[in-house]
Amino acid sequence: MTSHVTSEPDATGHFGPYGGRFVPEVLMAPLEELEQAYKAASADPAFQAELTDLLTHYAGRPTPLYYARRLSETLGGAKIYIKREDLLHTGAHKINNCLGQALLARRMGKKRIIAETGAGQHGVATASACALFGLECVVYMGEEDMRRQRLNVFRMRLMGATVVGVANGSRTLKDAISEAMRDWVTNVHTTHYLLGSALGAHPYPLMVRDFHRVIGDETRAEILKREGRLPDSIFACVGGGSNAIGMFHAFIGDENVKLIGIEAGGRSLKLGEHAARFEGGAPGVLHGAKSYLLQDADGQAALTHSVSAGLDYVLIGPEHAWLHDRGRAEYTSCSDAEALAAAKKLARTEGIIPALESAHAVHETIRRAPAEPGKLFVVNLSGRGDKDTDIYRENFPELDAADPNPKAV
Ligand SMILES: *Cc1c(COP(=O)(O)O)cnc(C)c1O
After folding, report:
1. pLDDT confidence of residue 402
2. 94 is annotated as an active-site residue
3. How far apart are the CA of 239 and the centre of ligand 1, in A?
4. What is the model's pTM?
């Protein structure tokens, strides 16, 4: 049964009470200019054709929709399909958005790109797109993240990007975004801010979502071809929310398809130990938009924690807040330990090592499958686990022993 549930922002960029444009006055005109340029580009067949060509021949779309037979049979319940965004160039879904925005920046005559990055995945995808188009690339990254993700810093530099360390605050993603916004205010005439998730002031949440819609569109067409029907449940991890909203969108009107977002449950659900915005967060404004925000007693953005840097952010994208309040999507959380266990299980049943972010979605899929025989599940595997090898090694020391014949594995 298809309903008339839709999810589009109003003319001021609000998804219900969320989203909007909470920025300094100097950014109002540039955001307006960006909105107009994006609208024109998205309606231009030449722009769409060039983007599709790049997604196909550069990024590697369409990605496979893979039936995980061994995982499904081991669990003895639902039939589980995996959307393989992990197979894309640079290792995650992020390249979809970076190619779209880089193409738009070129169209707008902007020759300088700035971006923020946490773990470095968005920075790497941005550096890659900028190299491809010959655009100057400056990536802001917290110094703490630079230390933890040295390899990604090197990859960005190898592709010609300048990585600027941010020493403010907790020296992580939130501080990097603030610094990138400061740069944008100063250099807005020459510079496009290539934001990495479905966050920020309008039109970013809409635009970033649209560049990722291809994930759900491909999934819908492919599952109809393979199974002759739509899935019963769809799972995706939610940091800012871009891979999840890209996957969910094609199914929003199909009310019988459950949409399940998984946030980072971290070490515990005590404030400061997780990034599950729907568990303890409340509406607030950060980085240009209103949405669910984890905040301390004074309403300041709280500290967060997750084993996966990509889910470790204090605000959720505004469209998710709206889907949540209307009950169209449900949200749950997965702890660090559960995500690590799910990653190991997927590695051992299917030979696929997921990104730690994606492992959060895999966990919820594994948790629900046994009780739902006959049901069709799709889990979005947003990225591959190569970037997380060091964290896996730390957490599975028994597999990393110097002893050539370790006993316990
Ligand atoms: C960045 C990242 C995420 C989180 O970002 P969203 O915008 O919520 O999708 C999830 N998975 C992977 C692999 C990432 O690199």
Report:
1. 76
2. yes
3. 6
4. 0.97
